[in-house]
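Exercise 3.2. Students should predict the tertiary structure of the chain below and write it as structure tokens, then compare their answer with the key that follows.

Predict this chain's 3D structure.
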Amino acid sequence: MNIYKAILFTLISSLLFAAMAALVRFAGETAPLGQVVFFRAAFGVVPITLLVLFRGQLSQMIRTRRVLGHGGRGLFSVGGMFLHFASLARLPVVDATAFSFVSPLATVVLSAIFLKERVRIYRWSAVILGFVGVLVMLWPHFDPSRYAGFATTATAIGAMCGLAGAIINAGAVIQTRRLTDTETTSSIVFYFSLFCALAGLSTLPFGWIWPTPSQLAALIATGLIGGLSHIFLTESYRNAPQSIVAPFNYTTMLWALVIGYVFFGEVPLPLVLVGASIIAVAGLIVVFRERQLGRRDIDSAPPAA
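Answer key:
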């Protein structure tokens, strides 16, 4: 376990995920959902393949002892990816990212239930504080007129897909954590990409488009950046319990705010900035508490024989 390394990997992954979300939204305006999923998965395996080739560990990427475990994770991942991309295609990047933050909160609870991770009161407090920050950021979007005709409007469908995808992705995170006990990072990413690519390819008969050069570049970049972000995320799970790194996933919202402003002209509201500050404080609480516990373990006397 290396808590600080896990936190660093989570922060890098969050930045890459936000960049990928912007590309998905750009490509998803014209390309069918299944086609976007295929490119994300097919080209997402390229970075990990180059990495294992450089290390001379190609056999580790394919070798597995838990085919069913990868299959279970694949089902969660396919459902979560389709729903999240559907949300990004119908909502602004900031909105879709905000809905996705249900996932880290659900993951902490599932980690305590299914992985039997010990979640102390300080971590629970930090996660709850982060949840309050998310609510503050979401508050400007709680406009009933925005969701008039909830059953039929595109924004309503996007919101429903975002919430459902976030919950399903929490299940994928738990399964990933289980797989890291015996599986390599390369095999986890490879089989994740394989399942999602096959699912996306199965939608080919339903009308893919012939992309323009800019669309093709965006689709390929979606896969490459998504693959890199997935590597960092999986490594973060390997270096610390998910309940520790979960609050730092909130930094994706900060990157989404910047990207939304620069590329889509979305100006963050004051409440959004307040919520982001609350989330940053929640992350610092986790870091400070874990550092205290680490010093206590070092300073404590060894047990008697």
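Discussion points: Residues 147-152, 297-305 have pLDDT under 50 and may be disordered. Residues 22 and 263 are 8 Å apart (CA to CA).
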